[in-house]
């Protein structure tokens, strides 16, 4: 009888843990989408598909869009390793504010500009390093 009770308790624990993990994953995917990643990926799909003929554009876009959800799920694992569910929920709450929405809309452009500055800076530092070789 004790063994049966133990097994039942173990199964209940596993079920609860799986439900918590599913909620964590779902909230994390929501967070990733809110950050503007979804718009960025859709933009990339459009850029990659620029050479696709008009006759095939709709089919290409539909198939390419199906790759997004598995990508979000994989990316969620990265965030879930670094943040707690409470932290992710707080980030979701921020991105649902007006300021968070503004950041989400501007994030891609800001990142691209920052990368340009970073590349120029890297070249400058490389020149300094060559001076000391």
Instruction: State the share of residues found in helices, binned by percent.
Output: over 70%
What is the molecular shape? extended
> What's the end-to-end separation, in Å?
77 Å
Sequence stretches where pLDDT stays below 50 over 5 or more residues: 12-19
Cα gyration radius (Å): 22 Å
Mean pLDDT: 87
- Secondary-structure element order, as H and E? HHHHHH
Largest sheet: none
Task: Please give the count of helices.
Answer: 6
| Structural class by SSE content | mainly alpha
Number of strands: 0
Approximately what portion of the residues adopt beta-strand conformation? under 5%
Q: How would you characterize this protein structure?
A:
The chain is mainly alpha-helical. It has a domain at 35-113. The protein is built from six helices and no strands. Helix 1 (2-34) crosses helix 4 and helix 1 packs parallel to helix 5. The longest helix is centred in the last third of the chain and has 34 residues, at 98-131.
Task: Give a brief rundown of this model.
It is built from 6 helices and no strands.
Keywords:
0% strand; 6 helices; mainly alpha; single chain; 133 residues; extended
Topology:
Elements: H1 2-34, H2 37-48, H3 54-65, H4 68-82, H5 85-95, H6 98-131
């Amino acid at each position: 009888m004790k063994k049966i009770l133990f097994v039942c308790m173990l199964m209940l624990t596993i079920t609860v843990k799986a439900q918590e993990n599913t909620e964590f994953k779902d909230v994390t995917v929501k967070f990733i989408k809110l950050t503007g990643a979804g718009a960025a990926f859709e933009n990339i799909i459009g850029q990659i598909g620029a050479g696709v003929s008009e006759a095939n554009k709709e089919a290409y876009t539909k198939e390419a869009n199906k790759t997004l959800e598995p990508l979000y799920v994989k990316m969620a694992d990265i965030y879930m390793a670094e943040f707690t569910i409470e932290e992710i929920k707080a980030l979701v709450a921020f991105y649902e504010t007006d300021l968070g929405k503004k950041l989400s809309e501007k994030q891609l452009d800001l990142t691209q500009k920052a990368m340009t500055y970073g590349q120029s800076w890297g070249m400058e530092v490389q020149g300094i390093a060559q001076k000391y070789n």
